[in-house]
Amino acid sequence: MNEKKNILSRTYLVYIFMCLFALGILYRICIIQFAQGQQWRDKAEAFTTKLDSVEAVRGNIFDANGALLATSLPYYEIAVDINAPGITEKIYKANRDSLSLLLSNLFADKSESEYLKILNKARKDEDRYVLLQRNVSYKDLQLLKTFPVFRKGRKGGLVTLQTNRRERPFQMLAGRTIGMARPGIKPVGLEGAFDSILSGISGKRLMQQIAGGVWRPINDENEVEPKDGSDLYTTIDINIQDVAQQALMRSLIKNEASHGCAILMEVKTGAIKAIVNLTKSTTDTNSYNESFNYAIGYPTEPGSTFKLASMLAVIDEYNISLDEKVAVGNGECMYFDKKVKDSHAPESPTLTVQRVFETSSNVGVSKIITKYYSKNPQQFANKLNSFHLNEKLGLSIPGEGKGMIPQTKTKFWSGVTLPQLSYGYESLITPLQTLTLYNAVANDGKMVKPRFVKEIKRNGIVVKTFGTEILEEQIVKKETIVKAKKLLEGVVQNGSGKTLNITAFKVGGKTGTAQIAKVGAKKVKGKSAYGDIGDRNYQASFVGYFPAENPLYSCIVVINSPSNGVYYAAAVAGPVFKEIAEKVYSGSLDFIQPINDKRNLITKVPSVITTKGNEISAIAKTFSLPSTNAESEKFVNRNIKDSTRIILAENNIESQLKKGIMPNLHGLSAKDALFLLENNGMHVQLLGFGSVQKQSIEAGQKFNKGNKIVLTLI
């Protein structure tokens, strides 16, 4: 009996314990659900929501005339929440077929039945986010908003996420200079250099994570609106850019060249108006694209275009005469074990400095430089350094190559470096560095930094302008510049560049044909780093300025590895320079001289109608016409014909009319004639337009009030 009671008591104890435990759980559920419910709901939401960045619209890039070079176009990720509260079962069933058909017609990637299947499945599974399409244009988005169900906007289940895609309206034109800026990629061109200015400030949008790890926007609006980037206005003229690209492209294709570049720069300001970089496609031998900026990032041995630097140095420091005689012999000479040879036999064993430069004699230039600098070759290197040829120009865009002028204390200097350097070898110069030097000569010695940007605007307001930067106020003496211009203009008129044949204006410039060293080639005795004869690559270039009388533009053209049997600069690069120069000249008002730039263009004053003197006076002052006796309010007319001055005399029209005598009305305007005659009681009929030429009642005749007069106007 006691054992039974013992068992029952234990059972009751366990039962009571279980009841209390159940009550505790129930109590805890109530506390969590009601007392702490909002707190836990907030925490749960915090784990499934986040603030996501909203990309700002990137600023535009324009050319010098306001043409759009690069812009950001909006594209959208389109999704549907087919279970949105606003889509009742009735609405869904009534519109699903038409919605599926329209989606199929718009995107053309799935059939109507496939889209219907997607919508039905999402409806059945209560899926709140189904991706329909990526990269949808703004135009298509506006059309989507008119579709059944979607026209209700957010309530209609349409979910959109905007992204921006960079587009270049002119495609390849100046593509490498415009460049790009993307995360994880080395910045290129203007896009990379001005990335922080163009990119703006990102906004914030609240996103929610739903089933499958998909994030969707919670609200239609952004929590923090992005601030769009500023706009960049460049110095490039897209019309000139097109001219330069087409000219260079034709020459590259014709000569089957590897690559090439062309640059056009304003002489006074350094503004780059066109910069073209073309590389042969690896898949299509007749196709070229902008894949590398050779103009600023590819220093090479310049060849004969470097001879200008040599002549500037020796003329400036030793004031040599252009008529000084130079013995060139048969066009060959030796420096230690190095033979220097001209490409053509000289016209005479002895040439003047002028003819050495005009005929681009390597022998002649090397002899001039070694004559004056062999005892102190570092002096020559120092002078070249002063032209900024051994350093970067400090351009506003990344990727600039650094020039190299060998110095006597470095391992690059040898016994043949001085003569080799004098005509453009054993040095490395970018095309833009070469152009900058020639531009300085065209600019009377003032060296300006090449620039690509005019100004930055935000919401149409200029926030920063970029003016001309001067690298050297005067690179050489004025007298040296005069001689250098004579040398350069002589090349085109009488020397290696005379095949340009430009008759509309004069050009100063220099040809350059350089052998290209083989990649990885090492100096081996008896072997050339440039390869065997017949298996050598060349670089053809022409650089100069125009018009020579008043230089406005400088231009360089470089074509690398022409392989169609012709490689001399005059035949390969010269025609490109000529085409660019002629088309720029013909299309620019800057070259047109005014017919008469004096303020007073009038030699004979115009005829004058009969009217009040003060009216004639006001007109004369407006057009700066000399006049006399034109201040009264009485009617006046001109009494001297073909004069250079408006000499006026009062007439007696009003007094004659008061006496009843018809005055001479010739020259009166219709308005004045009506006013005078009708105020004196006459009926007036006008024929034609202009001023009075004939009157039906002759001057001097009497008239009465009420008489009719017919006036013929011309």
Describe, in plain words, how this protein is organized in 3D.
The chain has four domains: 180 residues, Penicillin-binding protein 2a (Domain 2) (Alpha-Beta Complex); 353 residues, Beta-lactamase (3-Layer(aba) Sandwich), CATH 3.40.710; 53 residues, no CATH class; 55 residues, Trypsin Inhibitor V, Chain A (2-Layer Sandwich), CATH 3.30.10.20. It has 22 helices and 29 strands. Strands 2, 3, 4, 5, 8, 17 and 18 form a seven-stranded mixed beta sheet that branches. A six-stranded antiparallel beta sheet has the order 11-10-9-22-21-20, with helices on both faces. Strands 23-25-26-24 form a four-stranded mixed beta sheet, with helices on one face. 36% of the residues are buried. About 1% of the residues have low confidence.
What layout of secondary structure does this protein have?
Blueprint (H helix, E strand, L loop, with lengths): L1 H34 L1 H12 E6 L6 E2 L5 E13 L8 H19 L4 H14 L4 E8 H7 L13 E10 L7 H4 L10 H5 L1 H5 L3 E8 L3 E4 L13 E4 L3 H18 L3 E8 L5 E9 L7 E2 L4 H4 L9 H12 L6 E3 L4 E4 L2 E4 L8 E3 H6 L3 H12 L3 H9 L31 H6 L8 H12 L4 E2 L4 E6 L2 E5 L4 E3 L5 H17 L13 E9 L20 E10 L6 E8 L8 H4 L1 H13 L24 E2 H10 L4 E2 L6 E4 L7 E5 L2 H6 L11 H10 L3 E6 L3 E4 L12 E6 L1
